[in-house]
């Protein structure tokens, strides 16, 4: 699932901070989505009651996941569909690959699916010689750029209009103006042909409904319906937690999802899919396959992190995060970015490559405040930090530093002497009241901003003087 590549976290952050296009594009869209959510939730009224209701539905589902998954699978099969439980990413990829081989498929069209990104499905299919085309506009843009999504609902949030025009011009072999209508027209014409020629359509799943065996897709583009109806075979891939018990429950969750994601009362398309077409149907796929992916999710059940599985992938937490605002999504090194990514990604993949993510947060709590299903994100980030330390994923230098500070802080005499020594030592590096090139641990700070010169009088000395004088 990791997309970290060869760069470590700090280098990815540094790269992001020196990308002026990204640092312009991300805040612009982030602000627009955030303001849309604020307006939509205000109009809804009783927001806390809605959040509580959605949270209870999601938590109840997670706590009874085994029975609802069994009900879902039974009803999908009753509807004529095929169900495959994939324990690992490799199992899901293998199942899709086998269908592709059996059908002799040469081309695949996809609608938006974060789970397919998680299992690196495109790469595996392309290695088989299969042509894979993303039909979601944002996904299509980053596919042309050879990149991964940088946001849960706006995969190309980091791209400017000028960059998109450059990508489309290269694909078209001609100059396409930096004009929204002309850019959309090119994408529409290009993708229409791909829909008609695709042998297999692959989609994600916003939610599955256990009581009917339905897969529900929510989008603002018509691509999802074309992907799931024009090809002869439709494969839907879902994380095992992405279901609700009933359509009544879905009504509550969708009401929260669309408002929290894009600030809409409802998206342009809400599509319920009940399997392959019947004899009397005029269109639709001849075969329907549902892949239910675990890939580490079952390990989260019953742990302190269980509530992260309530996530409905709205991206509201990402849109208020000050860290994401400055470094974008790719710096996280995971398909899942922002606060939700900082909690979820290490759970699915481990701390080896992603141990820094829980620390990529100011712990301001804005993410928790806007989460429509009340996931305590900042609390879970603190829990992660504890686990990172307890499991030994910190450097020897950090271990020695904190042991030294613990000793110093618990011995007032040593603490006081250390503060005075630090003041004397740091004053050597100060100029005009600031340290521009700090030594040791301060180096990371002063590489990007100056550090204030220590005060002439420490708080402890000031306090002693005040109490003595009074």
Question: How are the elements arranged and paired?
Answer:
Blueprint: H1 9-17, H2 20-44, H3 47-63, H4 65-78, E1 82-86, H5 89-103, E2 107-110, H6 114-118, H7 121-127, E3 131-134, H8 137-145, H9 161-172, H10 180-197, E4 200-203, E5 207-209, E6 214-219, H11 223-229, E7 233-239, E8 243-244, H12 247-262, E9 269-273, E10 287-293, H13 316-319, H14 322-327, H15 338-349, H16 351-354, H17 366-370, H18 377-390, H19 396-409, H20 412-427, E11 430-431, E12 434-435, H21 442-446, E13 451-452, H22 459-469
Helix pairs in contact: 2-12, 3-12, 9-10, 15-18
Region (Disordered): 445-470
Keywords: 4Fe-4S, Electron transport, Iron, Iron-sulfur, Metal-binding, Repeat, Transport
Protein name: Iron-sulfur cluster-binding protein
CATH topology of one domain: Rossmann fold
* Helix fraction by DSSP (H/I, runs of at least 4): 40-55%
Structural class: alpha/beta
The CATH class name of one domain reads: Alpha Beta
Identify the CATH homologous superfamily of one domain.
Answer: NagB/RpiA/CoA transferase-like
Query: How does the major sheet shape up?
Result: 6 strands, parallel
Beta-strand portion reads 5-15%
Low-confidence stretches: none
Q: Biggest sheet: strands side by side, in what order? A: 1-10-7-4-2-3
Count of beta strands: 13
The assigned CATH architecture of one domain is 3-Layer(aba) Sandwich
Any idea what the radius of gyration is?
A: 26 Å
Detailed description of the structure:
It contains 22 helices and 13 strands. Helix 15 packs parallel to helix 18 (377-390). Among the domains are: 46-293, NagB/RpiA/CoA transferase-like (Rossmann fold, 3-Layer(aba) Sandwich), CATH 3.40.50; 396-469, no CATH class. The strands form 3 sheets. The chain has a 6-stranded parallel sheet, with helices on both faces. A 4-stranded mixed sheet has the order 8-5-6-9. The chain starts with 8 loop residues before the first helix and ends with a helix. By secondary structure, it is of the alpha/beta class. Residues 445-470 are annotated as: Disordered. One of its GO terms (molecular function) is metal ion binding. It holds the Pfam family LUD_dom.
């Amino acid at each position: 699932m990791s997309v970290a590549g060869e760069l470590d976290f700090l280098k990815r952050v540094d790269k992001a901070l020196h990308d002026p296009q990204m640092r312009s594009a991300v805040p612009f869209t982030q602000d627009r989505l955030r303001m849309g959510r604020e307006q939509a939730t205000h109009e809804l009224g009783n927001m806390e009651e809605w959040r509580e209701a959605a949270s209870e539905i999601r938590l109840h589902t997670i706590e009874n996941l085994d029975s609802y998954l069994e009900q879902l699978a039974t009803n999908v099969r009753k509807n004529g569909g095929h169900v495959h439980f994939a324990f690992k990413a490799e199992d899901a990829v293998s199942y899709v690959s086998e269908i592709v081989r059996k059908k002799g498929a040469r081309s695949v069209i996809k609608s938006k699916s974060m789970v397919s990104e998680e299992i690196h499905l495109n790469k595996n299919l392309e290695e088989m010689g299969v042509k894979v085309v993303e039909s979601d506009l944002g996904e299509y843009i980053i596919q042309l750029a050879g990149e991964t999504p940088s946001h849960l609902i706006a995969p190309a949030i980091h791209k400017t209009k000028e960059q998109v025009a450059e990508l489309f011009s290269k694909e078209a072999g001609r100059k396409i103006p930096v004009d929204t209508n002309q850019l959309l027209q090119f994408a529409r014409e290009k993708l229409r042909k791909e829909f008609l020629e695709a042998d297999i359509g692959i989609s994600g799943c916003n939610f599955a409904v256990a009581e009917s065996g339905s897969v529900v897709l929510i989008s603002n583009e018509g691509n999802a319906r074309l992907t799931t109806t024009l090809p002869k075979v439709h494969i839907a891939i879902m994380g095992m937690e992405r279901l609700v018990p009933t359509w009544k429950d879905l009504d509550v969750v969708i009401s929260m999802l669309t408002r929290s994601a894009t600030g809409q009362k409802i998206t342009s398309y809400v599509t319920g899919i009940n399997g392959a077409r019947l004899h009397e149907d005029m269109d639709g796929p001849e075969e329907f396959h549902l892949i239910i992916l675990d890939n580490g999710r079952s390990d989260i059940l019953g742990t302190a992190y269980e509530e992260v599985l309530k996530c409905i992938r709205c991206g509201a937490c990402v849109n208020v995060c000050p860290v994401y605002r400055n470094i974008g999504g790719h710096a996280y090194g995971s398909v899942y970015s922002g606060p939700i990514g900082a909690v979820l990604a290490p759970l699915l993949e481990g701390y080896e490559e992603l141990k820094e993510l829980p620390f990529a947060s100011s712990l301001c709590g804005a993410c928790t405040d806007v989460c429509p299903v009340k996931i305590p994100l900042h609390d879970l980030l603190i829990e992660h930090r504890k686990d990172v330390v307890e499991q030994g994923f910190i450097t020897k230098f950090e271990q020695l530093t904190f042991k030294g500070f613990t000793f110093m802080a618990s011995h007032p005499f040593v603490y006081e002497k250390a503060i005075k020594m630090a003041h004397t030592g740091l004053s050597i590096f100060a100029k005009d009241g600031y340290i521009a090139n700090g030594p040791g641990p301060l180096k990371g700070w002063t590489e990007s901003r100056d550090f204030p010169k220590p005060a002439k009088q420490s708080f402890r000395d000031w306090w002693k003087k005040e109490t003595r004088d009074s």
